[in-house]
Design brief:
- This protein folds into two domains: about 210 residues, D-Maltodextrin-Binding Protein, domain 2 (3-Layer(aba) Sandwich); about 170 residues, D-Maltodextrin-Binding Protein, domain 2 (3-Layer(aba) Sandwich).
- It has a five-stranded mixed beta sheet with strand order 10-7-11-6-12.
- The radius of gyration is 24 Å and the shape is globular.
- The chain is α/β, with parallel strands linked by helices.
- Helix 1 crosses helix 14, helix 9 crosses helix 10 and helix 14 crosses helix 15.
- It has 18 helices and 17 strands.
């Protein structure tokens, strides 16, 4: 690691530690709302005045207050094993902050934040209680987009269990990009209403689930590609599919079981290539009957098929390690692949081992139908409010104020945490530079919500959306199947299933 990185580590780590999400709560009803804590909320500052409590998110004075003194707000997050000690898994520094945030927030409104203990089947049991009209928690940490689908479309009834957050605009602002991931919230909006809030992650976690390219410096140097050359191509926007394929071909050494690129766990190679060519697996369309918009299958568009053909050509070069069940970080660390399109958090998984190859990080290369880099993000943290709570407006307000990151996204504190976190998992300055650029090119992919559901019949069996891609890779390369033919054969059934899952029918 370079000297400048080491110096920066020392400086930053003395001042900042990583801070993440706090928690939230339940309701009770009274006649009048407690006055909201004072403080001017702004989009670009974490504290607007000396009077602003450092443990509370600044609140816009134009918003009404729905929280009533004496209420209890129940909050469920699946990591809570002991409700009396909800931050037991946090670092010492984060635990202290979260305890202070909880006590200060409770004191400001005269309420209680009650953490709800986790259960084995938490992803379904809490939604089932809400569906029965007896919710056992008010604010619900939905885990990730995998579970969000079943919670929104519980028992085949879209929106039956969850409050539309956007209908409480007078009490809560979820459009403030300093505190909420407004890009991901496009994906958590159904039938025109926001159902799941997505608080911004703080530090390097903000890009941890974005797709990037990691390359083994030694393997590429062996083929004549210095890391400085790769970074120069990135800066000049010359890092494209053609050079990516060329390097993959030239670094493949099958005699020594070295491949130019890996397909990645669950086919992350294709998850990165599709958006890099201005394509998407799902896109917004309008239903002709209801006029409502929904996510429909677009994986058979011309741009998408061009990405698949690019994948097929690399497969014919024998430059792709085709095992989608093998975690890409394992094969990369072992020196079996020169490049991998993978999540940025794989960097930490690699450097956690004492022995690992020197590696660099660049964005996914630009496809022929795109003008700039795109980094697909297909994971986020959704939170919702269940229907049937005693004070839904208060619950929505608590979610917007309490369940947020420690700092506003553009604050100096957040930026310093980002750098400190990035430094700890990379091998060079240029990789940090790349990671800093990721938020500007990030696009949240909705397909992850429907990853394993809905299933549909492809003519021979019931399959999930994820299977539509990875179970046919080898057939595509061999030529026994054609992507356009396969996707066309299932598109109608898949689109009907997607529409039924999303649109609230009157």
């Amino acid at each position: 690691m370079k000297k400048s990185i080491k110096i920066l580590i020392c400086v930053l780590c003395l001042v900042f530690c990583l801070g993440m999400l706090a928690g939230c709560g339940d309701t009770g009803t009274d006649a009048t709302a407690t006055p909201a804590p004072t403080g001017n909320a702004t989009s670009n500052t974490t504290s607007s005045s000396d009077a602003q409590d450092p443990y509370l998110r600044p609140r816009d004075e134009s918003l009404k207050n729905a929280i009533k003194e004496g209420e209890t707000y129940r909050y469920f997050i699946y990591t809570t094993n002991d409700p009396s000690n909800p931050f037991e898994a946090d670092s010492d520094e984060n635990r202290e902050f979260n305890l202070n945030r909880k006590s200060h927030y409770e004191a400001a409104y005269g309420i209680t934040i009650e953490y709800v203990v986790t259960v084995a089947d938490w992803a379904n049991s809490f939604v089932a209680a809400a569906y029965a009209g007896t919710p056992t928690t008010d604010i619900f940490h939905a885990g990730g987009p995998f579970t969000m689908y079943t919670q929104y479309n519980y028992q085949g009834n879209p929106g039956a269990t969850i409050e539309p957050l956007s209908q409480y605009k007078e009490y809560a602002d979820f459009e403030d990009s300093e505190w909420f991931d407004t890009e991901s919230q496009k994906v958590t909006t159904f039938s025109g209403d926001l159902y799941f809030a997505v608080p911004n992650q703080i530090g390097v976690d903000a890009v941890s689930l974005n797709l990037v390219v990691m390359f083994n410096k030694a393997i590429l140097e062996g083929a004549g590609y210095e890391d400085t050359e790769i970074y120069d191509m990135w800066r000049n926007k010359e890092w494209n599919w053609d050079i990516f394929r060329q390097i993959a071909r030239e670094t493949t050494d099958l005699d020594n079981e070295v491949y130019g690129v890996t397909i990645g766990q669950n086919n992350s190679l294709m998850w990165g290539l599709l958006p890099s060519n201005n394509a998407a697996i799902l896109s917004q369309v309008e239903d002709e009957e209801s006029g409502q918009s929904y996510w429909a299958f677009s994986g058979n568009s011309n741009n998408a098929l061009e990405a698949w053909n690019f994948f097929i050509e690399m497969g014919k070069d024998n430059s792709i390690l085709m095992n989608h069940n093998l975690e890409e970080a394992t094969s990369f660390r072992a020196g079996n692949v020169g490049m991998m399109i993978t999540y940025a958090n794989r960097a930490g998984q690699i450097t956690n081992y004492r022995q690992y190859p020197e590696f660099g990080i660049v964005p996914v290369p630009i496809g022929p139908q795109a003008d700039d880099y795109v980094s697909s993000c297909n994971w986020f943290t959704p939170l919702c409010v269940f229907k049937g709570t005693a004070n839904p407006a208060g619950s929505v307000q608590v979610l917007s104020e309490y369940c947020v990151g420690r700092y506003a996204k553009s604050s100096p504190e957040a930026q310093a945490q980002f750098d400190a976190g990035a430094i700890s998992v990379v091998c060079d300055d240029e990789s940090i530079e790349v990671l800093r650029s990721i938020p500007e090119i990030s696009v949240t992919e909705p397909y992850i919500i429907y990853w394993s559901t809905p299933t549909f019949n492809n003519g021979t069996s019931e399959i999930a959306l994820c299977q539509l891609f990875w179970e046919h890779n080898q057939n595509f390369v061999d030529g026994s199947e054609t992507p356009s033919v396969l996707f066309e054969s299932v598109s109608d059934a898949l689109n009907q299933a997607l529409k039924d899952a999303q649109i609230i029918l009157s």
